[in-house]
Amino acid sequence: MVSSERLLAFAAMSFLLIVVPGPSVLFVIGRALAQGRRAALTTVVGNTVGAYVLVVAVALGVGSVVERSVLVFTALKLVGAAYLVYLGVRAWRKRGSLQAAVTTDGSARGGGPRTLWEGFAVGVANPKTTVFFAAVLPQFVDRAQGHVVVQMLLLGLVFNLIAVACDSVWGLAAATGREWFARSPRRLSLVGGIGGLTMIGLGVTVAATGRKD
């Protein structure tokens, strides 16, 4: 199995990657601003499940195909970017109706299956984690110990546990700030628009960056 030294080294590298806001974190923040705490945490769960699907894909050998193929990588990146833009446009268009969705305690009704699915879609199409799992994860596997797939799944689990903790902090912090805006329909509309524009900008950024080879 994975040695404690390798596990700690991988955890440290994972934390450095996760703590810097990327597509998943910015999407969670956008969701928190647009829909509140429940939607943000549901998005974190969806993101995590999506990211672990990438871990399973790498463990089964699919990740190496994505890493070697510019076409596959670019297609995955553009699909994810387009979906982010779509969600951002939808959030922007619905910014004026956010007040009706806010409950008496200041949180929004946004934690259903659709929110979970949207978080999953962003997580599984995240180019940053795709490259990390495909290029970095295999380097921490001790092939001499055997059970390579199990080692990758364990390392991926460590990554996702760290991601859940960090992304939840980001989402809760953003949702807390949102509650101040929720006291005014005009301010709430403003923050809903900001959340939508954040997702649109994120989608454009994801589409414009990445591998050039």
UniProtKB/TrEMBL annotation:
GO terms for molecular function: amino acid transmembrane transporter activity. The keyword Cell membrane applies. It is found in: Cell membrane. Keywords: Cell membrane, Membrane, Transmembrane, Transmembrane helix. InterPro entries: LeuE-type. Pfam families: LysE. This is LysE family translocator.
